[in-house]
């Protein structure tokens, strides 16, 4: 038997969160880097081929130079051929370097493109779940700076990996020349590897702190820009600048730590590499004096020790990989926030009856709603009222599945919202908000944003003008839009609109979107009294066939509703008609200026 309890439908458990987002392992970050490297495409193969070919040519150059020198000393008849081979190998190294630079740039750009596409798509899919855990500025920083740092991984990984080839090849070549030279080089390389390992570990940690401080500054700056008018009106620009830049000392400290780490590792490598070269040359000199080496072999050995010690030049690439790893960890924190999972059940025919059963909502451990249960009959209007912080917006969010309850279930015409596909759900529910964001190039597109429609005479998706016009008329937006020179073709950024007019465009978009349910989350707060009454008449007239859930702050809105849900501290205190609830002094106290509101209601 199918369970009907709301407790049986729980959202997936979210990962644990730290100060900078979900806690993720370094292994997941390394896997993300590996996937980004593979997205380098054909140019990654070019980069790898040129790096390998260049490394092989580097290995052959010392031997060729040694043979050429021996040919000069012995006045060998093969001198022209040996010199020509050495020159060709040197030219091959130059060509490989040039192609490698081009391939590194293109493969890095492709990796960054793949990462940025993933980040933006996932962030928008996660929606409000993402912004509950990370500030918008922090998200933008990760999608910008951190993606670029992680996108440079292909070049750093391939180049660092190919540096092993000259080092390993130098050991083999020296072993063929004289085993004692190879033993001396291996001892020095072990010291260089130890320096690189310590450098990578410490640099990864310091890079993470640096990037986190960057994200904090960006997050606070975005918040300050959103309140720029308030800051200017209060004359607190200097104070806000100091607040935004508060993480700057930490940023400076982390940056200095990175430079110190690189300088310390550079000094260590600068000491080890020359000592290694001196040691190998000293051993080679002794072998030469003993008659076990030729002059050409000593020259080749000197070149091979330089190539082998070139592993120390991997510090720069190690620093890049360390920054990429810490950046990848920050990107993985974004990907760890799961997007809502949609079902595949179609919506059956119905009037749009909305039912909440034992709905409980928490955010960051704070309970916003507790045990909410009520029914909004199809085609009726329910007003949700309550003091600030009572849970009205949280209720509006779960009613149309902009958020999922921690416990309980929301049903539309008997089907749990979780089981409905994304497209049918979004076609059925229309939302309007207090501060709507307008998308689309023109005002007409802003009203029809999200509606699926096709113009047979145009390749682009369009919304029928009649649909846009009808929604704008119901929202009282049509008169001021038609007064504009271009009307509905006016670009959004060029339309001179007040806050109330922007809110009307947002209402029109919700009216056009709502197939069965219309949810207004304080969406008429900026409207004047006359316009609000006109929109209210549309809600009870042309839109009366839709189920309406309205977060209300005004008595007039609550009075027009078929029923009122009165919230207090995240719980339902009472449900009834406005007239019946008005007898309760606590209900009247919810609205500002009770005497004025009572006169308005009468």
TrEMBL record:
GO terms for molecular function: ATP binding. SUPFAM superfamilies: ABC transporter transmembrane region, P-loop containing nucleoside triphosphate hydrolases. Signal peptide: none annotated. The chain crosses the membrane at residues 43-65, 85-106, 156-174, 180-200, 265-286, 298-319. Residues 1-21 are annotated as: Disordered. It is a multi-pass membrane protein. SMART domains: AAA. It is found in: Cell membrane. Keywords: ATP-binding, Membrane, Nucleotide-binding, Transmembrane, Transmembrane helix. InterPro entries: AAA+_ATPase, ABC1_TM_dom, ABC1_TM_sf, ABC_transporter-like_ATP-bd, P-loop_NTPase, Type_1_exporter. Residues 45-323 form the ABC transmembrane type-1 domain. It comes from the Bacteria. Residues 354-594 form the ABC transporter domain. This is ABC transporter ATP-binding protein. It comes from Microbispora triticiradicis. The lineage of its organism: Bacteria, Bacillati, Actinomycetota, Actinomycetes, Streptosporangiales.
């Amino acid at each position: 038997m199918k369970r009907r309890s709301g407790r049986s439908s729980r959202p997936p458990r979210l990962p644990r969160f730290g100060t900078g987002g979900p806690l993720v392992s370094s292994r997941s970050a390394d896997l993300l880097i590996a996937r980004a490297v593979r997205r380098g495409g054909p140019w990654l193969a070019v980069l790898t081929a040129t790096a390998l070919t260049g490394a092989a040519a580097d290995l052959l150059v010392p031997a060729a130079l040694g043979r050429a020198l021996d040919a000069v000393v012995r006045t060998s008849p093969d001198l022209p051929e040996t010199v020509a081979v050495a020159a060709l190998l040197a030219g091959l190294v130059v060509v490989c370097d040039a192609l490698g630079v081009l391939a590194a740039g293109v493969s890095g750009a492709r990796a960054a493109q793949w990462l940025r596409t993933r980040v933006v798509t996932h962030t928008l899919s996660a929606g409000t779940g993402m912004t509950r855990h990370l500030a918008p500025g922090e998200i933008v920083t990760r999608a910008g700076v951190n993606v670029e740092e992680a996108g440079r991984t292909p070049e750093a990984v391939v180049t660092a990996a190919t540096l092993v080839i000259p080092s390993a090849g130098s050991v083999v070549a020296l072993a063929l020349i004289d085993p004692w030279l190879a033993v001396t080089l291996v001892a020095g390389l072990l010291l260089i590897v130890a320096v690189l390992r310590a450098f990578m570990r410490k640099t990864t940690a310091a890079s993470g702190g640096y990037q986190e401080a960057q994200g904090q500054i960006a997050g606070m700056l975005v918040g300050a820009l959103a309140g720029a008018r308030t800051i200017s009106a209060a004359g607190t620009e200097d104070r806000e600048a100091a607040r935004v830049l508060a993480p700057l000392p930490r940023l400076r400290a982390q940056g200095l730590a990175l430079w110190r780490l690189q300088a310390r590792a550079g000094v260590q490598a600068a000491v080890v590499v020359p000592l290694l070269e001196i040691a190998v040359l000293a051993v080679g000199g002794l072998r030469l004096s003993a008659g076990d080496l030729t002059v050409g072999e000593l020259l080749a050995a000197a070149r091979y020790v330089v190539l082998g010690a070139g592993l120390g030049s991997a510090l720069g690439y190690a620093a890049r990989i360390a920054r990429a790893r810490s950046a990848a960890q920050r990107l993985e924190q974004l990907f760890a926030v799961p997007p809502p999972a949609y079902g595949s059940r179609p919506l059956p025919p119905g009037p749009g009856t909305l039912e909440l059963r034992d709905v409980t909502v928490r955010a960051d451990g704070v309970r916003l709603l507790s045990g909410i249960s009520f029914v909004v009959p199809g085609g009726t209007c329910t007003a949700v009222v309550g003091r600030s912080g009572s849970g009205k917006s949280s209720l509006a969010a779960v009613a149309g599945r902009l958020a999922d309850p921690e416990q309980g279930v929301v049903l539309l015409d008997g089907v749990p919202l979780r089981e409905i596909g994304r497209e049918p759900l979004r076609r059925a529910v229309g939302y309007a908000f207090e501060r709507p964001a307008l998308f689309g190039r023109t005002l007409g597109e802003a009203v029809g944003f999200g509606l699926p429609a096709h113009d047979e005479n145009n390749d682009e998706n369009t919304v029928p003008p009649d649909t846009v016009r009808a929604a704008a008329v119901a929202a009282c937006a049509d008169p001021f839009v038609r007064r504009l020179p271009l009307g509905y073709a006016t670009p959004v950024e060029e339309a001179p609109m007040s806050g109330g007019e922007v809110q009307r465009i947002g209402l029109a978009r919700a009216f056009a979107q709502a197939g069965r349910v219309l949810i207004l989350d304080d969406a008429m707060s900026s409207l004047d009294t006359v316009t609000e009454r006109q929109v209210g008449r549309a809600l009870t007239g042309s839109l009366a066939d839709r189920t309406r859930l309205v977060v209300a702050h005004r008595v007039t809105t609550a009075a027009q509703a078929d029923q009122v849900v009165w919230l207090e501290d995240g719980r339902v205190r009472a449900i009834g008609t406005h007239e019946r609830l008005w007898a309760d002094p606590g209900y009247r106290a919810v609205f500002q200026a009770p005497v004025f509101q009572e006169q308005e209601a009468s």
